[in-house]
Request: fold
Amino acid sequence: MIRLVDVRKSFGEKEIIHGVNLTVNDGETLAIIGGSGSGKSTLLKLMIGLIPPTSGEIWVGDRNIAGMEEEELDEVRLHMGMVFQYSALFDSMTVGDNVAFGLREHTALSEDEIKKVVAEKLELVGLPGAENMMPTSLSGGMKKRVSLARAIAFSPEIIFYDEPSSGLDPIMTTKIDELIMNTQKALNVTSVVVTHDMHSACRIADRIAMVVAGELVTCEPVEKFRQLKDERVREFLSAAHIV
Amino acid sequence: MTSFLEKLGAAVIRWLGLIGEVVLLVFDTFRALKKPPRIRHVVSQMAHLGVDSLPIVALTLFFTGAVMTLQIATEFIRFGAQSTIGGVVTIAICRELGPVLVGVVAAGRVGAAITAEISTMKVTEQIDALRVMATSPIGYLIVPRMLACMMMVPVLTVFGDAIGVFGGWAVATGYSGVSSLTYMNSIDVFTKAHDIVGGMIKASVFGMVIAILGCHMGLKSPDGAEGVGIATTRSVVASIIVIFMLNCFLSLILFSK
Reply:
């Protein structure tokens, strides 16, 4: 479980996140939506400890990661995976080496065992046999899938997705959405998906949280979210032609 | 006047901030050595940073040794001191020119490459990806590069010293009329092991400076493609300035007696 308690984040004088309280339950998929610059990616980075909050508490399981040293955070991060907006694959390594990275760094598995896990994870994301390809030769959708394979290689309990469908065509977006849902089912992980794609959010999430100008407007199950009367929610839904 | 003082003050604060950040990074990098780096990473960096720099180091030092001999040989011969040419050239190269020029070449080639690579990694979120995978960017990226530079810049310096002395010999014997035996004998009489070792110590320190500043500028680079260019330029300029400043202090410490 992830729990944010009155989390605030400032860059210089400017406060970006204004006292957010949010809980992500075990095994659920929570979509965080909001317009560009609303602070949703910042929220995601706070949850994974990439940036520290200015104040507040961020509980991951029974540990408050706010103010933790990097070495302590690493212990928590071993249970997390992340799919980055632009995939963030190591471009000097092959696809196989990218997926194997965490296993080589943090486990005592033999190379044969690592190769087996890599092949298994690549198959799970629909890229069997792609081990020797270089990231530069992959399409945007393939990169996202490799990024997901890398994120799940270490069998995490929580997976964070930062704009998984950005820059992808509608068909690939649907495929990535299906992959997120299949991964959730197959591994029973907790998923937090930051997106501005309302259709994706409705398709994959159990609950949707909406962030506007650094404030959490609402966090409701999908069906209830669609019925909300809040003007900001209605505006977002109608822009996506959902209502 | 007030505006000038404000700008001066801001620049001083900026430089002090930079020094503080670099010192902290050095401290963190040495602390990260508690976990031994993977030999494979260090060796790969040594090959990448060191071996690839050999041709440019050879060219730089050969012509430096040659032109230095060209300048001093005529004067030394006029004063009947041709028996000291080899020794003077060798001492100058081993103590000062070798380490400094190799340092400058490495700052331009290796330091720039380190900064460009790390700042690109930062811009494309690869540094964040490392952190998310519970891997310290300091241990994974900086430690191998620092160790590689600290080992390879002295090796390049010794190689460059030899080429520089050879360049001097080529001009002394081929142009200035000094015999090969006189040149070699002069080296034997004047040069001591301390001259070479002292130069290597300097080179090792310069290697550390190049790696740390290169990594620091990369990690702190502004966002975007333009940021990569800015960081790379800053890294090279800062490394060269620090090399020249440190060289003065190191010469005082190592060769003042």
In short: Chain A has a mean pLDDT of 91. The radius of gyration of chain A is 18 Å.
